[in-house]
């Protein structure tokens, strides 16, 4: 084989190797960016879910024995619970947690029980349990995605 042919082959291998490296690097970067985007969206949904439940708890706690609720307070109560249920039902990235932990059912039952008894302790307890499950899941999922990233 002639020297020019060997030089040409080596040059082609170098070019192909460089382009292959760039392509692989770009694919890895896109994969990481997508994982980061999913992680960010999950965390955003966890945060929105917690905020909706906390708002619902705050508004529900304005109901107590002897309290007189005006039309505005009643409207606020209905609107807040409606928004909370919409938030619970509209989760995409954390739908697995919402379904598995039966958040909608448990929160609805806690609200109903509170409105009948006006005892805030069981409502606050249910909120704390659901909140703990959400926070635990958020931390676990974030850590799991970070571990997967490290392993690559």
How does this model look, in words?
There is one protein chain. This protein is 86% helix and 0% strand. The protein is mostly helical. The model has no long low-confidence stretch (mean pLDDT 87). The protein has one domain (39-151). Helix 1 (3-60) runs antiparallel to helix 2, helix 1 runs antiparallel to helix 5 and helix 4 packs antiparallel against helix 5 (120-151). The longest helix is centred in the N-terminal third of the chain and has 58 residues, at 3-60. It is rod-shaped and about 100 Å long. The protein contains five helices and no strands.
List its salient traits:
152 residues; mainly alpha; 5 helices
Task: Give me a quick take on this structure.
By secondary structure, the chain is mostly helical.
